[in-house]
Structures are given as C-alpha cells and as structure tokens.
Amino acid sequence: MSTLESVETERKYDADLETPLPALGDITGVEQIANPVDHHLEAVYFDTADLALARHRITLRRRTGGTDAGWHLKLPAEQDSRIEIHAPLGQPETVPEELAERLLVFTRGNELRPTARIHTRRTLLRLHGSDDLTLADFADDHVTAETLHPVQVERQWREWEIELVHGDQDLLESAEHVVSLAGATRSAHASKLARAFGTAWPLPVPAPPKARPKGSAGDAIVAYMAAQIAEVTTLDSGVRQGADDAVHRMRSAIRRLRSALSAYGKLFDADARSRLKAELKWLTKVLGKARDAEVLRDRIGELLNTQPDGLLSGPAAAKLTDELEDAFNSGYRQMLRSLGTKRYFQLLDALEAFRDEPPVTPRAGKKARPVTAKLAAKAIKRVHRSQKEAARQAGAQRDKALHQVRKDAKRLRHAAEALRDVHGKPAARLARDAQKIQKILGEHQDSVIAQSVLLRLIHDTGGSTENNSAFGRVLAAEEQRATDSERRYEKLAKKKRLTSL
Q: What single-letter DSSP state applies at residue 419?
C-alpha cells in the first residue's frame, strides 16, 4: 500500500445557519468562482482510549465521499498548516499498517479505536485566478458530529473553510477580511474533531520552558532536552521505515540527552536522573548495533573501491561484503524489535514526564549563566584529563584512551550546545572546538574497529596467501588512515586549548 504526503494550509470560520455566503470575488487575486459542487462526507476518527493523538494535536480518520476518500493522517506543522498523509480506504476498522507504524511513537502499543463520527454536508466552490489557476477552495460545511469515546455527545454547527491550493498567505489574509465582513468569525477550534469533543477535548502537550540568559539554569537545560525529545519523536517513523540517516540522527539526539543529564545532573534529582540515563544508554546501544554496522560497511566498502581491480578475489570480496551487510541487517532487525517493546514505550513516557514535570533541585532555580558556566567548566576539565591520560599511553591502550577523549569531547560539545541561548557566541565556539576533536577521533575509532574486522578476516582465510595479501593491502590502507587521524588530533590538541565560558 502506498501513501501520499502533502501540506494542507487552511483557516476555519464559524458561521450562523442563516449567514449568506461571503463575496468571494472580492478576495485579492480571485477572478473566477467555479460552480458549486455538493458532497456528502462521512468520517470516522480513531485514537487511543486516553486520546494520545488528540493530546499531540494529531487526527486520524477514514472518510468516504468527496474527491479524496480514504484514510487521512494529519500532523501539526507551521501556523495554519498541517502535514496530511493519505492512504487508500482499505477496511473500515483496520488502520493501514503504514499509518499505524508512523503513529507508534504516540500510541505506544495501545489500540486505535473509533472515537467520533462526523457527517459533513459540503458545498465546495473553487476560487480561480488568472489562466484558470485554482488559488483556493472555499467549503461551506453543515456538520453533524457524534463522539463515541470517552464521552457520547452529538453536536451540529456550520463552518467555512478556506484551503490554499496555489494561493499564498496574502490570499488567506484577504479572504479573512472578506469572510469577516460577511459575519463569520475565526474558529476557536483547530479541527472539526476538537469542536465535536468540546470541553472533553484534552489539553495539548505543554510547551517546554525557554532558555534565556537571565532565566533559570533548570529552564535552559530542560528546553534543550525538550528539543532532543521532539527530535526522537519526529525521527521514530523514519527509523522504522529505513529513511536515510534517521538512525544516526536519532542516536545523536539520545546522546545529547545523556550528555545533558551528565553535565548538568546536579540540577535534577539524582535517582530520577540515574534511571533515565540508564534507559537512554540502553536505547543508544539498541540504535548503535545497526548504525555502527552501517558505518563499518560503508567505510570498508570505500576502501575496497579504492584498491586496484583484481586485488581481492571474487570469493574474498564477497565474504567481506556479505559479512558486513549481514551485520547491518541483523542489527537493524534487532533495533526494530526493541522499538516495539514495552521498555521503549515506557522510556518515551519517562522522557515526556521529565520534560513536563522536571525533577529539579534548588540549584536549578538559580540564574543560568553562573551555574551552567561552572558545570560546563567541569566538562572541559574532564576532556583535559582524558587528553593527558592518552598522551601517556601507547599501542592498543592509546587507542582506548583516545576513544575516551572522543567520548568526553562529544559530551562537552553537547553540553556547550545546550547553552547557546544562555551564553551566546562563547558557547557556540566551545561546541565547535569540541566537535573538531570529536570528529577527528571519531574517524580514528572507526579505523580501529575496521582494522579489528580485517585482522579477523585474514585469520579466517585459513592461511591463503592470496587472500591474506589482498586483505593485508586493505588493512595497510586502514592503518594509514588511523595514523593520519592521530597526527591531525595531536596537531589540533597543541594548537587549540578548550576555554571556559
């Protein structure tokens, strides 16, 4: 089954039953109004028992009648707009799998059930501009709505909708003036479903606090964490569908959350912080199996492509590429299983609870600048200590120590990113400097892992001179990569020292 995705931009207005239609020809840019077309629309809306979709201002319906019969999933977007995903009608009580999977991050394993039924008697007028271009659709709707769960209420009303087709925001503004002159008022409800539920419509997810230079330290960090939680929620469906870079971006958001809890942990209750960090660490590992295998596959594949033709025999090259591909596929399957578990859904609940009612300590209420600067300084010292330790090591122990420098630099980078709205340019500069260290040593660590895989493959060839020689050439190239990245790190470490905020 295929789905279609588009952006819907519209405004709704309340009109009395006796209100005459507005002078649509007075709308700027409208040169012609098509003959009215009548439609009878029947829509059944679906949600969980606790109206989880409604809380996130998401609607899911199956509608018959009109020109776009089918399943419609609408997600919040910018002002006056929503993302609409359309799927074929299918079965009345069975939510299409692609839509249900996309909503798992909100439904979290709970059943989607009918919550309302809405009948609309619609008169549609298309508004055309020059060259018969359709600018917008004007809908005069007479609505009868019946809520099914958790309350049973029936309501009737009349509303007007103006939805852009090829028109722009200026047309919407002009249309609002014309509609207001006719006696209609801007609707207080974002959707027919919200109006049907009335006072039973759940409150939206609360807006997170804002980070301000003169605000509290707790607000600054919670605001940063809220942005990462939103990123996880947004990326969830892409991860499930195998979208490019979705796993990497989601794991990065999780790591940012862990870094914030580590660097600014003293702002929050210790037990709550520790529990959340433990679960975030688990999810990082879940995502890491697929992501690390993907990086290794692409890295070694790039090395193979740079070797002379015929260097690797057909069986040898196939063994290598098959193993890397199998590792990625296995990791991806394990990841998908984990993202369907109760543990993952409970983690999402815990993240939202932490965001909405953060378990702050008294220190979190103090001014952001001095408190966060002091905590960020500790993260800087942590990097300096790991750098000194790496300088004392050699061989495999040095590789391990450099990996620790990388992890500490990454934590510092995220800690500094969280303070951009509080400390401005100094925080941005610190984040940038830490990222340079992280990036170089990330390449070094990828090379170390790739070398270990190649060494094992050489051992597994059973002493074949041909294959050992071939894999040996690839290994030598990878060893050179590691040497180059280590030199670049040493040059950077000498040239630039991390400075406090």
A: T
